[in-house]
Structure formats: structure tokens, C-alpha cells
Amino acid sequence: MLIALLSTITLVNFLSALHGYRASMAEAQRLFDRQLAATARLLVDMPVPDEPPLVVAQAEPLVLQVWSAEGEMLLRSADAPLQPISEFESGYREVNFSGYRWRSVTEFFPASSRWVIVAERADLRYQLAEKVILESVMPILLGLPVAGLLIWLLIGWGLSSLRQLAEALQDKRAEDLSPLPLQDPPEELEPVVKSTNALLARLRASFERERRFSADAAHELRTPIAAIQVHAHNLDSELRQYKLAQTPESLGKLQGSIERMAHLVEQMLDLFRTTPEHYPARFETLDLQLLAREALAEQYGAFAAKNQTVELTGTRSSVRGDRFALMILLKNLLNNACKYTPDAGRIEVSTTSADGGTTLRVEDSGPGIPAAEYDRIFERFYRVGGDRHATTAEGCGLGLSIVRHIAQLHRAQVRLGQSRFGHGLAVEVEFPQETAAEGGAGGHHG
Ligand code: ADP
Fold it and tell me: pLDDT digit string (tens) for 219-228?
């Protein structure tokens, strides 16, 4: 736009300056010619002595000659040649003499029967005209850079809102569907901002609908699953009354499946509950070590059943976070560590605080995860090796997705690595240094 505008203005200005120069020059020549003719007329009745020619003083830059009709020189200016400057025929012409080019006018006046010739140096009159004309044309050319600068500034100013819009769009994170934060967009941009915001709102609504549908579905499934659980339990007790040698195998399998389904539904609900965009976090200052101890105590039975050694090390480490969400995070990590680590394995949980923030590490002596899977493992329903899991541990592939949601909620980083037991997984959750800006209830997600 800038280049197109500047070249257009330069071209137009240049053409108008050129036209102005040429038109003014032609007009100036006509003016000078009329002056020349007027001077000629002054000489018509000039009295001449009996012994012509009369030689008059030079009237720079003119030369004059007056001839009688018979061809006798009656008068001349001092510098005028003795020969007629031009042939005796009325009109303007260009002639050369005395080493210059001249513009001359020749006129015959019948009343006094005289030829008058007046000539003016062409180069001098040209210089004079040019000086006058250039003075009027120059400002047009000199104004060009000024116009260019002004146009550049104006375009920059006019397009700044477009740049702002681009920046606002660029700064948006993929999951951020809030309206664009542009206050008072200029009139031209209003439709763009409006329709972008409308689009974002529609997307938000449809995501919300979808999310709510899944959450509602999971929620609705809870009741029938609980009912089936009760029925299965009752069936178990009723069968016991018949004093069978052993309860049927199918009933055990049925109860296992129901439990898995109940777990899946709970995990799905946790996943939806902890979506960073929707989770209304109530942040408070918490001791991560204390939370870890609580979570360990809750799951102690599971570790004991597999005869696993669990250690809790590190220091008291404060984080600003949501108690409920952090407990879910810990539970999922501990549950995985317990599930995938074989009997009599080791598990270590540690919390450390440093200048950079607070770090939670959960390490186990299990099989670990191949590094190539580190990225995919956070996807929903993704499990290493799919359903035929090498460790035969049950799961639905949602645990680490939940962990990541909760980490995002706390602006924490989740990293996977090798545990210090040589093999086995180490999960590290690094919470940023709590800052004053993040203080206060409510956190950054409303
Ligand atoms: P789930 O455990 O319910 O399958 P997760 O999302 O918690 O789902 O874990 C995804 C996959 O990551 C698991 O299926 C498992 O293959 C692998 N995994 C998670 N934690 C561990 C661990 N501590 N040791 C080995 N593999 C793990």
C-alpha cells in the first residue's frame, strides 16, 4: 500500500510539475513576445535626424533597428548590427547574430512607412522565465518527501489496529476461546472483530455442549453402575446361602468388570471436572508434602497388598493450588506406580522446593515407558501396547490426561523420565515459583 501510494503520488506530482513547467514556459514566451511588440510600437514615431541613422544607447538586453520603407537605416541601438536583423516581413522569428541567438519581432507601420525590428537575447529571457517558473514548481517536488513521510505515518497509524488484531489472534492459545480483547476497534475492523468473536462464541458453546454431554453421560452412568454393583453383591450373598463349595467364577468376573466400569466412569468425571478452561479452581497455599502423605495413606492398602516399599522423602514444599485437584493428581500418579510396578517393587515420592519452584517426583521400579511414547501417553484413552498391556494391569488410559489437566491448571510442567531405580518411570511435576501476582483466592481461571 505504501509503495503503491508513494509511487502514484510521485508520478502524479512529477507529471503535474512537468506540465506546469511547460505551460508556464509557453505563457512566459508569449508575454515576452508581447513586450517585444510593445517596444517596437514605441519606436514608430521616434524622430530621426536628417542624417540617419540615429544611434541610441543600448537598452539591455534589447537591440533595435528602424528602417525606412526604402531600406534606409533610420535608427539603431549601439550594439545593433548594420545589416537588417531579419528580412523585411512582419512576424516573430529566431535569428543569430553577434554570437547569440535572438528572438526578434519585425513589424511594418504604414502610417509612418517604417520597419521596426526589435530583438532580445533568447538565452537571457529563457533564464529569466526559468527562474520564475522553477520557483513555483519546486515546492511540488520538494513536498514529495514530506508527503511520503506523512503517508507513511498515517498508514502505520491507520493499520495499527489491524496489527493489534493480528497480535491478539496470535497470542491466543489453542484452547482459549474467549472473545478477542480489543476495546473500541476502529469502524473498519468492527465487523471482523465481531464475526471472529461470534465464531469463538459458537465454538465455545459447541465445545461446552459436547463436554457437558460426555460429563452428563458419565454422571448418568454412575447410578445404574452403583445399582448393578449392589445387585451383584446381593447375588453373591444369596448364593452363599446355598452353601456352594465355591462362588461361581462368572460372578467374580462380573464383579471385576463392574468395578472397572465404575473406575472408568469416575476417571471420565475427573477428567471433565479438571479441564483447565472450566475448572473453577480455588487456590490456597498448600503443603505438597502433607498432601502426598495423605494420598499415600489413602492408598496404603493397595501398596501393602503388592508388598511394595513406599518412601516419602523431601521437604515441606508449599504450592498455591487447589486441594481437590492436587489430590486427584497424586492419586493417579500413585495408582499408576502401584499398578505397573511388580510385587515387592519400590516406589518413592519426593517433594522439593527451590528458587525455581516446587517439584513433585513419583518414581517406581516398574517397567517404565519407552521414551518414544512420552508424548502420546498423555492422550486420552492411550495405553502403551493398547489393551493387551504387557503388565496386564487394568486401566482406561485417562489417568495421565487428568494429571496433565491438573498440571495445566497450576501452570505446572509434567515431565517423564527414567526413575533412579535404573528401570521404571519417574514422573516429575514442576510447579512454578509462586508469585504475589498469583496470590488470592480464585486463581487465574475464573
Ligand atoms: P491407565 O493407567 O488407566 O491405563 P494412564 O493415562 O494413567 O492410564 O496411563 C497411560 C499408560 O501409561 C498406561 O496404560 C501405561 O501403559 C503407562 N504408564 C503409566 N504410568 C506408568 C508407570 N508408572 N509405569 C509404567 N507404565 C506406566
Answer: 899 999 999 9
- pLDDT at 391 (0 to 100): 64
Please write the tens of the pLDDT for every residue from 348-379.
Answer: 999 999 888 899 999 999 999 999 999 999 99
Ligand 1 neighbourhood includes 271 CB (under 6 angstroms):
no
CA 430 to ligand 1 center in whole angstroms:
19
Q: How do residues 374-416 score in pLDDT, each as one tens digit? A: 999 999 989 887 766 566 788 889 999 999 999 999 999 999 9
Per-residue model confidence (pLDDT) at position 278: 67
- Residue 383 CA to ligand 1 centre (angstroms): 6
Q: How far is CA 239 from CA 1, 246, 247, 257, in A?
A: 86, 9, 7, 19
Residue with CA at minimum distance from ligand 1 atom 8: 397
Atom of ligand 1 nearest to the CA of 398: 6
Does any ligand 1 atom lie closer than 6 A to the CB of residue 419? no
- Judged against a pLDDT cut of 60, whether residue 429 lies above it is answered with yes
User: Which pLDDT does position 368 carry in this prediction?
Assistant: 92
The pTM for the full model equals 0.61
